[in-house]
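User: Can you fold this complex?
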Amino acid sequence: DAGVIQSPRHEVTEMGQEVTLRCKPISGHDYLFWYRQTMMRGLELLIYFNNNVPIDDSGMPEDRFSAKMPNASFSTLKIQPSEPRDSAVYFCASSRQGAQPQHFGDGTRLSIL
Amino acid sequence: AQTVTQSQPEMSVQEAETVTLSCTYDTSESDYYLFWYKQPPSRQMILVIRQEAYKQQNATENRFSVNFQKAAKSFSLKISDSQLGDAAMYFCASKIQGAQKLVFGQGTRLTINP
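Assistant: Here's the predicted assembly.
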């Protein structure tokens, strides 16, 4: 089975630009998670979906961040406008219902200049 | 609230030796799950091992095993016969039964000396 697929792998853009990160979860997984990893704060959960519905977005830093899951096989995390402090590695993960572990994508390294 | 603490920012071990990475956690729940993830320089997060809190038997996966001490809220990872490919950041994480949120520790960077 294919794992969680994220794109792009790297993104470098200038401050103020819109950034869109993409994720394809593992087929059959009910849950999708977006994380941010920085040296200062470690791994933080931003938002997660269950059956395409956002369940908990309390980790989303501010209104500049938005996430959507239009169908079971695709999700986006958008930052508009981007700021240098948004520079981080963003991970998408998915899991089945219940006690199943989360499987992570390879992450997107985002650099905002 | 859940917390996970990894008190060793860095560890090193000689190739073929055994190393133990420490993790403590705090939760008021009785049913939960514990995980160790490995993050090599390639940045991918790889599940190493998992433990259900209701199981007394320690989980093992080949050269990886855990020492789960529920009363002490301790969940250490033992790596036997260390290999160069084991070099990575290791993250301990917990999840409450019925919830989906994973809480991660700060990570331990493991270096393998040839």
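The mean pLDDT of chain B is 94. The interface with chain A takes residues 33, 35, 37, 42-47, 50, 52, 91, 95, 97, 100-102, 104-107 of chain B (CB under 8 Å).
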